[in-house]
Fold this protein.
Amino acid sequence: METITGNIYYITTKLMNLSKEDKQKIFDLSEHKEKRSLSQNSYSWVLINEIANKTNLSKEEVHLNMLKHYSQVSKIMLRADIDIKGFIPYYELEGYADIKGIKYAAYKIFKPSHEMNSYEMSVYLNGIINECENLGIPTLTDDAIKEMKLVWCMHYIMETLL
């Protein structure tokens, strides 16, 4: 199976120039989006571990707290008898509502870091860095962080333009 990667103009040209037999094939087209970089992910976990050590919390508790404060948030309502635990890893119950005799639960849903794009991960990591600074936990130098942010910015620009 051949994969064609490029902007819309390049892909359109490739599709227009297919042979008669190839034009009978079915194709999948999807938008390419950069995931957060491994350096962002690794650094976030180093800092989360440092916060956990300083605050006597588990890494999982700190990770959830960071997601609550710095990740993308969605809100949903489900029937109260549906157990959300098996479907959504990071959530917070906001309350209940009775609609036409059916009890519903309202939830805040926090986007997991593994689903964040490079921009969302940058916002998330900036929040973690701020938390570390507030706790007196050393972080990378300002120059090293600026260099990382430049790389993240380039990732974001590339995923936005393509």
Observations:
- DSSP finds five helices and three strands in the chain.
- The longest strand covers residues 91-99.
- The chain has a mean pLDDT of 82.
- Residues 34-71+112-161 form one domain.
